[in-house]
Amino acid sequence: MKRLLALQGLILAVFVLLGNGLRSISTTTVSVSQSEFASFLNISVEKTDVLIELLLGGAVIALAVAPFVLTVRNARKVAVIFAIITTICYAMVGITMLLDPALDVREIVVIASFAFSGFSVAFFAPLAQLAINGEEDPATRARLTTVWISAQPIAFLLTPQLVKYVAFDIGTGNYFLILAAMPMVFLLFIPFVFGRAEATAIASSAPPEAAPAWKRVLPLVIAILAFEAWTASNSFVGIASPISLAFLGLFILICVALYSRQKHLTRGAAAVPPLAVFLLGMLFVLEIPTTGFYDTAYLVRHLCSSDLIDNRATLAAASQILAVFGTGAVLVRNPNWGINMLALSLPLLLAGMVAIYFYPYQDINVSLFYVSKVLSSIGIGMATASVIGIVAGMAAQNRIIALAPAFIIMFGTEAGIEILEVVFQSSKLAGLETTHAYQAVFAVQIAAVLVAIGLMLRWTWSRGGLGHAVAEAAA
């Protein structure tokens, strides 16, 4: 019996790991293969960022919609549909790279494939969260949540090595054909993970979970599409372009309209725990300074060696994995320590961001480049594990909150990249030289962490101190 339970636990852990890891594998693959995609599509390396934006944009839309459409009853059907779509998209990229058709065909296939695969593979993360939330044992949920959170840094750690030692030998086209098989592997676990829960839900006398009407979801999707249009125009024509400003204005108008109609759009929805809203808001703010995009870009421009940059990224991913598992282990033994661990992560993040600010004053190869990244990686790992660990305990109160962390992480990352890009381009337009423009970005990263610290202090004081905040989290 114990062996069966162990096997079931292993299957669930692998399912959770793949669920939140496959999306990161595809994004990281494109990131580290930019030169090859630039050559294949006959564009500059900088313009390949649009492929990453397609993957991120599709994922953001999917993760925004997922809480409104996913239930235990339809999990198997949703998984099958999007696993097939993801497999087809990855296979199309691989086949196109092998056949090397005309340039316009290459552009259409690759862009469409990344857009649809970014959307479809993103559903795997909330499916994994749904499986975690179905576990009755709090300790098991905490362990699986730790695995779910660690999937992204594990993908960041392994994917560059896979591209370097596998894709380099067999070709990127064949690599994507192999990657196309991974969604089918994920799909194999579905009957073992959701079979019993689905049967129980159908057999029970309880009515099916009512998903919110599409008219409530559609405005959110429209707002995200407007945001994606603005980010794409910023990349192609700059933040000062009339096209970019028009999309920005449209996005702001939609957000204002949504805010004015929030009571109507949320009428009849389950109450959202205030603590969950606060913690998810904190996580969103902390994702902004920790994208790692501009500090890495500065090191490239600073003529640091590729070995330093690669080793720094590897060390950062390993540090984040250790921080996630360490925080998860603490929360398994002491579930009430979530707020304490979150509070502890903030000074580490601040120290890391302050250290990054001093990059322009350093030589080409110094230990500060490593130390700063390790501190920020440990900090965001602890913060993410703490927030999701607490929010996961509120899953029974609100299904949308239960599936929200994946959206918050992804949208926070994309919003962070875009905010920092606006700061960088604005600094350049204001006449600052490139080094000072990077420092302006680094200053905004510090400010973001200070905002998070301010929010944390305000919340704890309004609750009568950290002890009361911990007690509220435990409740």
TrEMBL record:
Keyword Membrane set for record: yes
InterPro entries: MFS_trans_sf
Residues that span the membrane, as ranges: 51-71, 78-99, 111-132, 144-163, 175-195, 216-233, 239-259, 271-294, 314-332, 339-359, 374-393, 400-417, 437-457
Keywords, alphabetical: Membrane, Transmembrane, Transmembrane helix
Signal peptide start and end residues: none
Claim: Kinase is one of the keywords in the record: no
Name of the protein in question: MFS transporter
Organism: Hoeflea marina
